[in-house]
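Re: weekly structure request thread

Next one in the queue (338 aa):
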Amino acid sequence: MPDSRAATVPSPSVPSSNRTRLLASFLAVYLIWGSTYLAIRFAIETLPPLLMAGARFLLAGTIMFTWAWLSGARPSRAHWIAGAIMGILLLAGGNGLVVWAEQSLPSSLTALLISMTPLWMALIDWLRPGGVRPSLPVAAGLALGFAGIVLLVAPWERGAGASTLNLGGIALVLIASCSWAAGSLYGRGAKLPASPVLGTGIEMLAGGGVLLAAALLAGEAGQLHLDHVSARSGLAFVYLIIFGSIVAFTAYVWLLKHTTIARASTYAYVNPVVAVFLGWAFAGEQLTGRTWLAAAVIVAAVVIITTFRGRAVAPSPTEATSADDRALPGPALAGTRK
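Done, posted below.
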């Protein structure tokens, strides 16, 4: 999730020759990461969920780690430990639970619930020892966010004839969002590699390894029948590796170097809208007026929380930059939790 404290960093100038790439990078982050929820739904139609997620991150992590290694980056023991902790929180907990939940939840609903990660970040940051008490606007944003979740889930519609949602799946997504928030907060002070590609590779290898172990314990190896894997699932799996985990990540890292963190992090507001539209257009997921209203309330809450949390802490540009460098693998992997 974005660290909005970096909103005070002056915007780097963008040469005219880079403007096309700037636009392309924003589109990649907006559209690709917004589409990964639907891609996950398609992938697990005929692929075991945890096995799919574990294999995805192990393959993508191997590619990124090798890329960084060939570029001269070398991890220390401390880098491996910090990266493993983040990989477990962000990918095994954050992404793994999302993948599992999408067996019973629409991808659009999952995306909207996951977009509430800034809410959990604010709460965890407040409740931890020595935490930061939210300001009045942030508290209002938290209240608005919870109202959006209630409106989306609509518990008053339970009962005969109601279009019920899987409460277990909803709980898993909310836990996944909390895990992602905890991992992102941990990443702010973790000893991570200077190379974001190397750091992300370590996180993917660790998270993918845990997911693969969980898949084996759950007996998913016996559920994999390659002759039964549909072309749509196979293509979605490849898409998640190449585009969701590598292309969009590379575009995001480039954006971090050529624009402000605040602008690059606007994907957090756009991705849920993209996911909702794609779920409706390509998976026939139902969109009601209440869904759109809940989406608007949730996005508004996210904007309020990230904006006013950023104003509450105003470090010098050097401090803000260093803080975000340490947290880079967390927010940069936002798309990979999907």
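The first helix runs from residue 19 to 43. The chain has one domain: 4-337.
Next request, please.
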